[in-house]
Amino acid sequence: MIPQEIPSLFLSTDEDGFLIDDEKKITNLEIGSGVLANLTLLPNNSFGSWYHHQPVIVEAFDSPLIVQSIERMVLPEKNLNKLLKLHFHYDYCKFVAVQNLFVDHWDRLHGELENGIPFTFSRKAQEQFFEMLEEYTDEEFEWHGETEKFHPFWLESSAIDSPQWWNHIYVNETPGWNLESPAETLKDMLPRLKLPKSKILVLGCGDSHDAAFFASHGHLVTAVDISTHAIERSKKLYGHLDTLKWLEADLFNLPESFHGQFDLIFEYTCYCAINPHRRKELIKVWNQCLHDQGQLMATFFCMHKRQGPPFGSTEWEIREFLKKDFQFLFWGRWKKSIPRRQGRELFVLAKKRIK
Which of 45, 118, 315, 348 fits a 20 to 30 Å CA distance from 75? Predict the structure, then answer.
């Protein structure tokens, strides 16, 4: 049963897939199995379940289900020979079809249950899977004498690389990312951080609500967007702010004058808006634009969404992308967001590593 409203209570999962309640690992098999068996996608694309008869949001560090071991089903019916039995924590098991597996940037195996809940193979389970195969390459594998494909994790679109696509959204639709106000994390954290007057870069600024919030607090802000219409809308809203300036540009082709010039980069709904194969490239842009003591202030969407924008992500992926170039100062899920983003937001404050 799907909760009718976004829950106000939270559980989380650790990297290995154990459930966590108030920083304590849940060890009771019946309780843990019940939470996993009732996992569902909430209307806002966060994960929900039931815990002690109460609806909860489940904030997963990786996929909410981590496969611990697998069994190959050998049954007389041909179609059933394509089933795997997946074993998760808490003695919870599910059957899935091998032809529905997909692979991410790190060559990790993933899949989805019938209700859309994602799972990820642990290293041990993935090794078991490959030991079962007769033959395999990076793209396909042989199973019971038949060739099956590994599907790509992301369903990307080349159209979103162009300004025309974004201009069309602004002209013909109400952009779903536009909150018509600054991000909740920014409104809460900026006054508490007490930043000195800083040079701040906001990429993919949209209507510039976040950029304007920084500028209204005395910071020198440069806002960048690929869309002509986004820049025009921003200037109509905030053109009166003397410390806010705009640049219409592709964020992957910024002028060299930006290199090493900024104290802080604010990230919100840009990382999720680009094709995921360009995320590593985006992090390179952040590094280029920050000086050696520069910081990244970011709110990421942790949700399961293979097609976008917005594209989903996980804490696991974000950590893997950032840990080489940034030292984490704060890392935590945000529990005070608006309902349509509750349970999905991860707030990160990080300092650029000096190499």
Answer: 118
C-alpha distances out from residue 318 to 109, 149, 173, 334, Å? 17, 27, 30, 15
Q: How confident is the model at residue 178 (pLDDT cuts 50, 70, 90)?
A: confident
As given in the structure block, the two tokens for residue 248 are 């219409």
With CA atoms as reference, report the closest residue to 247 among 302, 213, 202: 202
Q: Which residues pair with 332 in a beta bridge?
A: 347
* CA 238 vs CA 159, 190, 207, 243, 300: distances in Å: 29, 19, 9, 10, 25
Backbone region of residue 18 per phi and psi (left: phi > 0; alpha: psi in -120 to 50; beta: other values):
beta
Whether pTM exceeds 0.85: yes
Residue 329: name the closest of 148, 144, 129, 195 by CA. Answer: 195
252, two tokens: 């992957």
- Is pLDDT at 76 greater than 80 in this prediction? no
Determine the distance from the C-alpha atom of residue 282 to the mean position of all C-alpha atoms in its chain, rounded to a whole number: 14
